[in-house]
């Protein structure tokens, strides 16, 4: 077994600063009133603010300091989000509350190359999610967690490295209670190695066997079973903005964090999505919703990001946004695709779908259409607008002239113009020179739009070839209906 | 292994077998990408002789100047549109009239590849034409824009270059007096059942005499 621990220092602070490019002076207070600060951002610390200070004295030091009460619910959610995202590396993920996620990576070393490669990928992935994390590697989960917290003393055997760790690591996961730690400190001990040398009987008599159990688990001498984390079936994760904003660039930056997390979740589940929802939460108003719709199921979120950029650019916000939430509730099975040696049809199809998505995202569904022909003798009914929303890619559609029996029958018999006027336009007969015999179209008596017309090819004064008709119903007026462009 | 070789399927069942597999699960060596040609033949020999490279330039803005619809502007492009590869769109941005589906289908244009974009605003039309041209997923982009300024034209030219896509821009004849970054500018006028093409600008020596193309 090989465990990789992801430890999030200052998680109470990180859940607030995650969506920000530049972190302002922020400090987090414990959730009960009058409590001291528990975390402060780097710019706040530069001004002399330290965890443990009282909120009022911190505000006196730095008047523009933003104070937030700790939100344990959001911390738990962030941990959950990281665990679901980590499913892309290994199916064996375990939560280690309150601030770490443990990954068992022995089984996937071959896939990723080496433990070092996984560590690099985990670190860069976490940076994309917007988290600052420390990573530790060890054969047991507890040791991995300790190494993440204190760093692995370099160049030594991992068992010796454990011996050198300070006693403060015993706080983690409530391994030992405060009395036991006070007892060890009272004995003048500093490292775990010294605690391990203490006689077992003496420790047992003082009610401090927990130390030995804990060390045995960390050294792999006692089993340390962990419950495996199971990612939820739907993706719904949020992100708090410390200061409400309406700038689309800032919102996009924050949303990118959530999209990175969505990508990990989709990869872990071998799933893809074709739509998701971004909810922009306002403080005192109903939330704004953005529907992100893709042309085909997709696992990579680059396309979603492009669509989101267009939608945010034209969205008019009623109020500043305090938090974001991304919801994807209907994952679909992803279609496997082989890698290709050369640029091939699949990539082209993807590009084609991406173009359709972008156009629809900015211009709206009603501005982008496909055309189709319909079997009808009436010129204005012989075509229809196809719905582009059902179009996957250009090649997936099969409707063509061959599917239309009338079109095939008429091919070569009657010519049809390439341009059709939306409505027939009344004309003066004298302006046109007829060039052909009449083609009579008498049709549609079964519905409300019967036509009785004689169609002619004609030249107009500008020498353009036109398609004109005379209505056979009295008074027999002439109309222009199209151009042979 | 030897047994399976002896009973190896002949070519036709093998092709059927490959077709039956889920899309994308097998890469076939015969499917080598055709490298982007620098020119697409226009389908009119007389025109191809005069166009630099022997056809429509692949990554360039091409201006077609005409005063009224119906001179033969679509027929001029039909050979190109009909030969468009199956994975690419043919995008029409803000056409002035309805492209008539039955006639296009008769002329060999696959309607399923035709993407009709009608943006509500003129600004969006330039954007849509740029996106379509730059995406590289269109065989051709046909755009009718309302008085594009020089900046817009330059952007369109860059987008066409980026996507290696021919971008046809339809403008009134009056625009011939203005300068334009387009690589190719053609004046289209009807001439007794033929299409008269004057090449205003091309990458090469100017052409003094007009071309007459039989389009009907």
Short key terms for the protein model shown above:
heterodimer, A: about 475 residues, alpha+beta, Dna Ligase, domain 1, 5-stranded antiparallel sheet, 16 helices, about 35% helix, elongated, B: about 220 residues, alpha/beta, Rossmann fold, 8-stranded mixed sheet, two-stranded antiparallel sheet, 11 strands, disordered N terminus
Question: What does this protein look like?
Answer:
The complex is a heterodimer of chains A (485) and B (216). By secondary structure, chain A is of the alpha+beta class. Helix content of chain A is 33%, strand content 25%. Chain A has four domains: 216 residues, no CATH class; 92 residues, 2-Layer Sandwich (Dna Ligase, domain 1); 59 residues, no CATH class; 70 residues. In chain A, the strands form five sheets. In chain A, strands 15, 16, 17, 18, 19 and 20 form a six-stranded antiparallel β-sheet that branches. Chain A is elongated. About 3% of the residues of chain A have low confidence. In chain B, α6 packs parallel to α7. In chain B, 30% of the residues lie in helices and 24% in strands. Chain B is built from seven helices and eleven strands. Classes of the chains: A alpha+beta (485), B alpha/beta (216). β15 of chain A pairs antiparallel with β5 of chain B.
């Amino acid at each position: 077994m090989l465990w990789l621990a992801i430890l999030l220092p200052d998680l109470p602070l990180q859940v607030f600063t995650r969506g920000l490019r530049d972190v302002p002076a922020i400090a987090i207070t414990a959730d009960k009133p009058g409590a001291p600060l528990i975390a402060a951002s780097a710019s706040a610390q530069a001004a002399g603010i330290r965890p443990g200070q009282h909120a009022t004295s911190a505000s006196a030091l730095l008047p523009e300091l933003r104070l937030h009460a700790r939100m344990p619910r959001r911390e738990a959610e962030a941990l959950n989000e990281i665990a679901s995202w980590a499913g892309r590396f290994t199916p064996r993920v375990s939560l280690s509350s309150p601030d770490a996620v443990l990954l068992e990576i022995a089984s996937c070393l071959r896939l990723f190359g080496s433990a070092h490669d996984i560590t690099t990928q985990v670190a860069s992935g976490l940076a994309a999610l917007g988290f600052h994390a420390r990573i530790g590697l060890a054969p047991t989960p507890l040791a991995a967690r300790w190494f993440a917290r204190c760093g692995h003393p370099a160049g030594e055997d991992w068992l010796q490295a454990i011996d050198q760790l300070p006693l403060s690591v015993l706080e983690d996961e409530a391994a030992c209670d405060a009395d036991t730690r006070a007892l060890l400190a009272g004995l003048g001990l500093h490292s775990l190695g010294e605690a391990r040398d203490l006689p077992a009987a003496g420790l047992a008599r003082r009610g401090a066997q927990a130390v030995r159990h804990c060390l045995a688990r960390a050294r792999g001498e006692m089993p340390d079973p962990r419950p495996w984390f199971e990612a939820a079936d739907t993706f719904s994760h949020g992100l708090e903005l410390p200061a409400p904003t309406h700038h689309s660039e800032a919102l996009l930056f924050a949303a990118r964090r959530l999209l990175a997390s969505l990508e990990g979740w989709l990869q872990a589940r071998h799933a893809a999505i074709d739509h998701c929802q971004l909810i922009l939460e306002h403080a005192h108003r109903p939330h704004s919703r953005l529907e992100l719709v893709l042309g085909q199921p997709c696992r990579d979120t680059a396309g979603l990001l492009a669509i989101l950029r267009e939608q945010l650019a034209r969205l008019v916000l009623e109020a500043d946004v305090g938090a974001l939430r991304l919801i994807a509730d209907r994952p679909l099975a992803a279609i496997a695709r082989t890698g290709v040696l050369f640029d091939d049809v699949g990539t082209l199809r993807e590009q084609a779908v991406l173009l359709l998505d972008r156009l629809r995202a900015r211009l709206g569904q009603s501005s982008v259409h496909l055309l189709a022909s319909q079997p009808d003798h009436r010129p204005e009914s012989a075509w229809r607008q196809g719905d582009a929303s059902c179009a996957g890619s250009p090649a997936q559609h099969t409707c063509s002239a061959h599917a239309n029996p009338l079109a095939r029958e008429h091919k070569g018999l009657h010519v049809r113009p390439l341009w059709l006027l939306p409505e027939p336009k009344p004309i003066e007969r004298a302006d046109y020179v007829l060039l052909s015999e009449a083609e009579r179209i008498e049709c549609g008596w079964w519905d409300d739009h019967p036509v009785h017309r004689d169609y002619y090819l004609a030249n107009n004064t500008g020498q353009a070839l036109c398609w004109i008709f005379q209505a056979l119903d009295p008074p027999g007026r002439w109309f222009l209906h199209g151009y042979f462009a | 292994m030897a047994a399976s070789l002896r009973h190896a399927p002949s070519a036709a069942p093998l092709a059927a077998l490959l077709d039956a597999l889920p899309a994308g699960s097998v890469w076939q060596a015969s499917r080598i990408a055709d490298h982007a040609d620098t020119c697409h033949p226009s389908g009119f020999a007389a025109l191809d002789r005069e166009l630099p490279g022997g056809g429509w330039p692949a990554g360039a803005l091409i201006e077609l100047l005409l005063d009224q619809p119906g001179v033969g502007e679509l027929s001029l492009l039909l050979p190109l549109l009909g030969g468009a590869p199956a994975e690419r769109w043919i995008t029409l941005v803000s056409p002035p009239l309805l492209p008539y589906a039955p006639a296009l289908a008769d002329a060999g244009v696959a309607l399923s590849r035709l993407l009709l974009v009608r943006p509500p605003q003129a600004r969006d039309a330039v954007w849509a034409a740029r996106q379509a041209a730059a995406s590289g997923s269109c065989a051709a982009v046909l755009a009718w824009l309302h008085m594009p300024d020089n900046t817009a034209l330059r952007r369109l030219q860059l987008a066409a270059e980026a996507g290696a896509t021919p971008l046809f821009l339809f403008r009134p004849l009056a625009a011939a007096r203005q300068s334009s970054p387009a690589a190719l500018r053609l004046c289209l006028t009807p001439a007794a059942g033929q299409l008269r093409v004057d090449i205003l600008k091309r990458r090469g020596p100017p052409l003094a005499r007009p071309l007459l193309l039989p389009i009907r």
